[in-house]
Amino acid sequence: MTSSDPQLPGLVDLHSHLVPGVDDGTASLEESLSALTSLYQQGVRAVVTTPHLLVPHLETEAALDRELSRHRRAFEPLASLCATRSDLPVVKLGQEILAPTATDIQRVVNRDDVGLNGVYLLVEFGFDLSSTHFDVIQAVLAAGRQIVIAHPERYTYLSDQDPLGLMQQWRRLGAMLQVNVGSLTGHYRRSSPHSEQLAWRMAELELIDVLASDHHGPRRIGVSPEEARKALIARGHGALAQRAMVEIPASIVGSDLLTSRLPG
User: Fold this and answer.
1) What count of other Cβ atoms lies within 10 Å of the Cβ of residue 41?
2) Most C-beta atoms within 10 A of its C-beta, which of 61, 169, 183, 225?
3) How confident is the model over 76-119, as pLDDT tens digits?
4) Cα dihedral sign for 191, 206, 51, 37?
């Protein structure tokens, strides 16, 4: 897929680490622009960049305020540049919120400077699960917001947990599940050996709501929405690619962000 093909829809990427210099993603504005250029060339027209918000490590409200302010200051020059260039996606700022417990998520769930459009929270439970984390989902929903669980195919589950069964329970509670495009193409075979198999099983069981890049810049190369989309189509999951890479993420970010880049 290329950005010049008018028959293909514009993709929307809800999870990336392209705010320069704030976490383990891109280190500079130049690296961010390079990553965004590559995403645009693959058909991505809107990007939500989601620096890590490590709530358990930010012990006070003042610490949370400082971290969110740091993200905004680093994001503004990037957003300004993207707004002036037609060869880059439009960008919006969100967060990937580390919240293993209800106590963690309750510290940010009512903040209007956290999340997307005042509604959605992208939440990571931590790679080594410590429980079912039902309490986190329930706390988000009780506050009138929606939760998108980041890359559940990459988690290490407790020995007595059935990963797919637990994912189904999360969705029945009202959570959405976000899978990394790299999981479908074997990008995490070393770091998360089970991720590829789990991601495809999720596709077969219709457990994927959103597919996103989780792009971290040049230190984690090989993450390709284009390759994932082609792999899905080749296995008969073209409708899933359209839904999870275009329709659902577009509804989450809102039409105001998309008007200037998505095809009419």
Assistant:
1) 14
2) 183
3) 999 999 999 999 999 999 999 999 999 999 999 999 999 988 89
4) positive
Residue 4 has φ and ψ, to the nearest 5°, of: -85, -10
Tell me the per-residue pLDDT of 223-238, one tens digit each, with 9 for 90 and over: 899 999 999 999 999 9
In Å, how far from its chain's centre is CA 12? 10
**CA–CA distance, 149 with 147 (Å, rounded to integer):** 6
Percent of the chain with pLDDT over 90: 89
The burial of 90, by beta-carbon neighbours within 10 Å (0-12 exposed, 13-18 middle, 19 or more buried), is given as: buried
Return the beta strands (E) in 77-219 as ranges. Answer: 90-93, 96-98, 120-124, 146-150, 176-180, 210-212
What is the biggest distance separating any 2 CA atoms in the chain, rounded to whole angstroms? 52
Contact 179, 202 (CB under 8 A): yes
Q: What is the DSSP string of 51-101?
A: -EEEGGG--SHHHHHHHHHHHHHHHHHHHHHHHH-TTS-EEEE--EEE-SS
The pair of three-digit structure tokens given for residue 205, joined into one six-digit string: 């069981």
Structure tokens at 183: 């999981």
Which amino acid, one-letter code, is at 183? Answer: S
- Note the pLDDT tens digit of each residue in 176-209: 999 999 999 999 999 999 999 999 999 999 999 9
What span, in angstroms and rounded, lies between the C-alpha atoms of 225 and 41? 10
Q: Is 194 left (phi over 0), alpha (psi -120 to 50) or beta?
A: alpha
Does the pLDDT of residue 256 top 80, yes or no?
A: no
Token look-up 């390709």 returns 224
Contact 150, 122 (CB under 8 A): yes
Q: Does residue 215 sit in helix, strand or coil? A: strand
